[in-house]
Amino acid sequence: MALPGDVIDREVINGIPLYLNEAKMALNFLVEKFGFVVHRYPVSKSLDGVSVCDSSGNFYKIFSVTRENVNNKKDVQRIINTTDCLRDFYNMATDGLSILNKPHYIPEGLVFEALDPWGNRYTFLEKRDYTD
What we know:
Order of helices and strands: HEHEEEEHEEEE
Number of helices: 3
Number of strands: 9
CATH topology: 2,3-Dihydroxybiphenyl 1,2-Dioxygenase, domain 1
Structural class: alpha+beta
Number of domains: 1
CATH class: Alpha Beta
């Protein structure tokens, strides 16, 4: 995905935060299983703030779940935007990912949830507009 640097910079700054258990392994998992692309590594050895992009062009910033700003929540919401929820569900289910529920409709769109090997729970959301 070739975007001008100024677009990438603006999107990354406004990226969706993903707080992860075992952030380094979970990041590798996101890259291998979900097709995420790493755009920028932080200067420090900590993964906090690494910028990634999913196959739909959505930008995220990865943080360790142990950061203070998570307020010790045990169930941090990790929403991954998708353009094709059913395709992603099928691919992940056949790839052996732990699927928590089948795709279903909510007011925001079509969703399903999955769990990675480190206990990170992901909600895959295909946004839909029901106002038409």
